[in-house]
Specification:
By secondary structure, the protein is of the alpha/beta class. It folds into two domains: 20-184, 2-Layer Sandwich (Nucleotidyltransferase, domain 5); 186-223, no CATH class. Helices cover 43% and strands 14% of the residues. Helix 3 crosses helix 7 and helix 4 (103-109) packs across helix 5 (111-124). The longest helix is centred in the C-terminal third of the chain and has 24 residues, at 163-186. It starts with a helix and ends in a 25-residue tail after the last helix.
């Protein structure tokens, strides 16, 4: 490779990282190692006070082109843009699925186990098991699950670096946001449509007025001393 070509390649790589543009470079490392399919997973809802934790999974192969323009970690993409990217991601991916763990499961098993449950459910929603699972973060969430024999590659900041993981984060974020908007209709008063179950002034005001709803994570400290209401609040 010529000096000019090498310099241009490095320039493109630096620009991509600066713009938080994920690539399929890590996925292609796995293809070079013999994998035929790679499934990128990412979660949303880990830190929420209410609602499920959700996992998205997107499968790619060595023939999959670069991610659709605009695909980033979901936290870096505006809500309307995320929604508009969903059809493009679904058409681009070889396969995709979602999995979730309920607030009750988050309370009963703890967050790491709940994330593992959501990950397993997402993967089992695929047409076929992938050769490699690409997980954001340092923890192998599948290690003690029924899918513990699957090969897993953990990558810190994979949602920023890996196209399959970034795409999965968008699918999961859009689906969970819509679910929380639906909950807002049957559990008004907490502003779930606005805060998506996370801490906010409006959420705290709803808790002060109505108490805990059926989708709050009652084992968390914010719930200490609060009355639990089984029925949807009125007004």
């Amino acid at each position: 490779m010529s000096f000019l070509a090498l310099s241009l390649e490095r320039c493109v790589d630096v620009t991509s990282k600066a713009n938080n543009t994920p690539t399929l470079d890590i996925e292609h490392e796995l293809f070079t190692g013999g994998a035929r399919t790679v499934a990128g997973l990412d979660e949303v809802g880990r830190g929420a006070w209410a609602g499920p934790v959700m996992m998205g999974v997107v499968v790619v192969t060595a023939q999959t082109p670069a991610p659709p323009a605009g695909v980033r970690d979901s936290k870096l993409v505006a809500p309307k843009k995320r929604i508009s990217l969903v059809p493009a991601i679904e058409n681009w991916a070889v396969d995709f699925a979602l999995g979730a763990a309920s607030p009750a499961e988050c309370d009963e098993f703890g967050m790491t186990k709940a994330l593992g449950l959501a990950a397993v459910r997402a993967i089992l929603g695929l047409k076929a098991l992938p050769d490699v699972v690409l997980l954001d973060g340092p923890i192998n969430l599948l290690a003690r699950s029924e899918l513990g024999s699957l090969r897993v590659r953990n990558e810190v900041k994979a949602d920023l670096r890996c196209g399959s993981v970034a795409a999965a984060s968008i699918l999961a974020k859009v689906a969970r946001d819509q679910l929380m908007a639906d909950y807002d209709l049957v559990l008004p008063g907490y502003d779930f449509c606005g805060n998506k179950g996370y801490h906010s002034t409006s959420h705290v005001a709803g808790l002060d007025r109505f108490g805990l709803s059926s989708i709050h994570r009652t084992s968390w400290s914010f719930a200490d001393g609060r009355e639990h209401r089984n029925e949807a609040p009125k007004g």
